[in-house]
Amino acid sequence: MTSNDSKIPHVILKWSPFPEFHPDAPDTISIHNQIINSFDKTEDKYVWWGKACVKSNTIGLVSGDITYLRKQLKNKNHETHIYFYCPEGTPPSLHVGLLLDVATTDKRNDKHTPHYYRELTHNIPVWFKIADIKKIDREEAYKNLAEPTGIKFSPVGSVVYPVLVHEIVDRVFFGANATDGQLSRCFKNGSLCGTRETTSLRPTRVFVGMPYQKKYNDVYLVAIEPSLLALGLKPWRADYQFRSIDIICNVCAAIQSSEIAIIDMSEANVNVYFELGLLYGLSKQVILIRQKNSKIPTDMMGMTAFEYDRDDLIQLKNAIYSILTNIQ
Prior knowledge:
Layout: E1 9-14, H1 28-37, E2 47-53, H2 63-73, E3 81-86, E4 93-103, E5 123-136, H3 138-143, E6 145-146, E7 163-167, E8 205-209, H4 217-229, E9 234-236, H5 247-256, E10 260-264, H6 270-281, E11 285-291, E12 306-308, H7 313-327
Parallel strand pairs: 1-3, 8-9, 8-10, 10-11, 11-12
Antiparallel strand pairs: 1-7, 2-5, 3-4, 4-5, 6-7
């Protein structure tokens, strides 16, 4: 291994969603996150991810790499990341995890390990201890990754995983200083956000903000909900939730865990405007809709929104479906 000791080492591995590997393979990310979130104490919130050797017993990491990683992991002043590359997904995806440790001893029977590892007969030579996993923009992430030699990293050019990579610009995806679509501080009292430690990005969740009045029920039931469900997406509405925590914290957590949102700005609704501001502040993808001839504040007139006719909600449904298909 030739490395630049001035740069923090990170790991990237490739995983497969094919059920031929294991019936639970398509849900690999969510299963690992479920274990993390199943523990109450912060020090217990982690999961073991094993790199199974399916086609050969060769992996990209050598003993020197693992020693190098462990040395760097002792430095708590920075984050060490593990990237999860899935080229076979629909669409291909990239996730990032907060790496805590690397082990070469078998972790199949550990309580922090998903059950299906115990059913695998493959050799698992290396295990990664991870505190959180979230989806990120793969194209932007690839631009920021380099091989230890300094050459720009290419996911296609690497045939044996996992391998070490460096970040050209050090990123912070977790903790109080994260700039990854989640809040650092609570807007109510200025303290560290209490939901971000238990909030993971849910790729299938779409936040829906709209006036919760009966006259808008058909907009949701005829247009918004069916278009989302047709694409395998799950709408999240505040008035459909029954949680014991503060409703504003519930909304905040839902926004942080969503990649996309649909906002109906047909009325001057302060709750909708607040949600819209939070969504834009966290760089979420927002689909704006509004009823034709609806009045909106002057400052918002320049915002691009799909105008719908209450007498033709199928057109709105088709428009939302089309927009979502193009941005997924």
